[in-house]
Structure formats: structure tokens, C-alpha cells
Amino acid sequence: MFTGIIEGQSVLKSVTKSGSNKEFIFESDFANEFKVDQSVSHNGVCLTIEEIINNTYKVTAVDETLTKSNFGHLTEGDYVNIERSMLVNSRLDGHIVQGHVDQIGTCISVEKMNGSFVINFKHSLSNNMTVEKGSICINGISLTVFNSKDTSFSVAIIPYTWENTNLKYLRIGDSVNLEFDILGKYIARMFLKNS
Do 64 and 146 have their domain in common? Predict the structure, then answer.
């Protein structure tokens, strides 16, 4: 369980295919704080730390993860947002994030505003949905939705988030991991069952 408040970034050093899985070696200033068997969010994907060597560590993504997230498209040198699992006795500063990506979204525009940024995304029509002023997790970041439509939405990014996450590298057409709000998903499912 995570909050969507990013602690830092890791850079991808290597990718190795292992059957239908892929093994990823990341470098991070946080590597010495990780523990083997610990769950860490990578761009919103909950992955298990398998091995730690100096300032690098290894995680494995299974085929399901590679298909439903942008992990299938990562290449050496890419940056991912990282967050360790939340502590039960700390504040929930973002929103409840499971680390289970629902689908890939696509960046359709990045607009520089007066001191901030607005990023517009599209996603496929599905049971997943956004609501005006609701929460969404994009590449592991807890953000607030506006311009909510059936297959698109916008988010506003403050300078701190822009500088301290991988959103600053986003270009039109880039894919992002989307995890829709868990409470909204449960409510939507209840309505679908009762209709």
C-alpha cells in the first residue's frame, strides 16, 4: 500500500529477458535503505526488491505487469518514480494507492502555465473512470483530476512535483501508468452489479 507521494527516482541500468518476465537493474540513492523482499512502487507498479548491490538493486516484472504498464517499454537510462510502502503510523498525504496499474495512458499535451504545468492524458474506454476533483495515480504520483471525460482528463502540476518526478521528461505520445481511485472502482462495480 502506497500514498502516491514520490520519495525519489531510480534510473534503469539494464533489462534482461527471463522467459516471459523481465529483470530490471536500477540505480538509486535509496538502494542502501531498501531490504530484500521489500515492496517498492516503481512508476506506480508494486515490485519486490530481490537483490541489492551497492547503489543498485534488482526487481522482476511478470508478463501481466509488462502488458498492463509502461514497464514493457522502459529502456536503459529511463527514470522511474519510487516510493516505499506507507507506514501505518504516518500521515496519508496523497491517497490510497495499491501499486496495481489498471492501464496505460498516453500524454496528449503538456502546457506550461504561469509557474505550473497542465498535462492532458487519454486512456481507453473501460470500467475505469475519473471524476472531477477526484484522485488518480500517474506513474506512482497521487494527483487531482480536472477536465474529467470518458477517455481523457487533465492534471495540474506544481513546480515541486515537476522537478522531483519523471513528469518533466514527458513528451506527447509517451505512455504512463494509470491506477484509478480504488474507492471509485468499488463504487462503480457496485452500480454495475445492481444495474
Answer: no
CA 60 to chain centre: 16
* Cα(143)–Cα(92) distance, integer angstroms: 14
Q: Which residues make beta-bridge pairs with 146?
A: 154
Q: How many CA atoms lie within 13 A of 5 on its CB side?
A: 11
Residue 76 lies in a domain: yes
Q: How many CA atoms lie within 13 A of 171 on its CB side?
A: 0
pLDDT of residue 181: 86
**Single-letter residue type at 10:** S
Within this chain, do residues 69 and 140 fall inside the same structural domain, yes or no? Answer: no
Q: Output the pLDDT for position 88.
A: 78
**Residue 13 shares a structural domain with residue 74:** yes
pTM for this entry:
0.92
pLDDT at 194 over 90: no
Beta bridge partners of 40: 47, 84
Radius of gyration of the chain (CA): 16
How does pLDDT run across 113-123, given as a tens digit for each residue?
998 999 999 99
Q: Assign residue 137 a region: left if phi > 0, alpha if psi is -120 to 50, beta otherwise?
A: beta
Q: Domain containing 42: what range?
A: 8-84
pLDDT value, residue 192? 67
